[in-house]
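In this notation, each integer encodes one residue's backbone shape. One such record reads:

___
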Amino acid sequence: MSDSAADLELLAGAVAALRRHDSLLRELGAVFADAGHDLYLVGGSVRDALLGRLGTDLDFTTDARPAQMQKLLRGWADALWDTGIEFGTLGVGKDGHRLEITTYRADSYDQVSRNPEVQFGDTLEGDLVRRDFTVNAMAVRITADGIGELHDPLNGLAALRSRVLDTPSAPEVSFGDDPLRMLRAARFVSQLGFGVAPRVLTALTEMAPQLGRITAERVAAELDKLLLGDDPVAGIDLMVQTGLGDVVLPEVGAMRMAIDEHHQHKDVYWHSLTVLKQAIDLEESPDLVLRWAALLHDIGKPSTRRHEPDGGVSFHHHEVVGAKMSRKRMRALKYSKQMVDDVSQLVYLHLRFHGYADGSGTGRWTDSAVRRYVADAGPLLSQLHKLVRADCTTRNKRRAARLQANYDDLERRIAELAAREDLQRVRPDLDGNEIMRLLDIPAGPEVGEAWRYLKELRLDRGPLDHDEAVDELLAWWNARQNT
């Protein structure tokens, strides 16, 4: 297919996508046109329409100033949000759509922080040239008649057809203005399946240290979007190969130094990316916690690597070290306590299954060990199942089949125990109030010790009837008093 034919096909697809929003676009176009203002669909919305992936979140730009927009839209919108008003952006809710409308911008940057000196512009072309990539620098005119002509002064359509990310101006200028754009390049590689132009690749490599100017919260937001993309492996690898990863996620690139103990992968780095891909294949829907855990599950290997006398390589307790490293990195990126706890716990638990049975499939765990596995995983059990299965990357088909069969057996045993017991909430058979009554003690540390003893007993032996639990508690208490 010729380039012109390919472009026509892309444009026809975009028109079809936009016509699904025709009523909304006509109404909004009329609101601005009647007031003498221009309105354009812009940026990612145009790109996604051309790619056939347009949703209900739409971005617009206009020559109207923020106060004018508020006045125009107050009677038309279902809801207005002014949290971005100082940057010229007004959020609009209408008929289930989330719209963002921004006044033309002509910002300048101080090349030290990423915070621009906000300046409103007067032309569409001036607004487009300040955007991150040419595929995001196209606009479609919106009027009372609906969609109008495409404005593409920077050849974004050609870049989109070629599936390549390039900057409107020299990448050194663009990334110097806002270094976060470098990480955004990796995110778009993941989300869109695009490559980067040679000059962009050079600039990413040379300017990677400037990403250190960006706040942890903004970095984490981009990393999350990257990981939730269709091909996060490609985005992560671009980060690592250019040095961006050394700035924001150095533990991942460091795994290139550790050779996999089974010698089935180039290194632990590629093993980890394979595990990430396989974990994604097991998802019912995109799972950020699982993806982070898959990426980080082996980051403890480089610091625990040991060369054994027989010529092999071991990584003893790398799951413990990796859990601590995961917690430290995610805290530095300012993730929530819940997110930090969940990811680090999955990293900590990912290796435990490998003690389930010996090479012949015998020596299986006791029921007590199965209960502890479920109790320690807690609400993360389903994600742990996926992570453990994804962590099998051996090319030895017999070994891979044995590992999967063993895990099938473990899941079957968990289901059998769950049918007899409440495995999701393993608690002592006596609560704190009853412990205090039976032992005639007030609330305090001794109640906690008794509660933990009964929980351990519950994990070891399964549910006890009430009288048996009372007898065990009193026997423990008496023995404790006599020591």
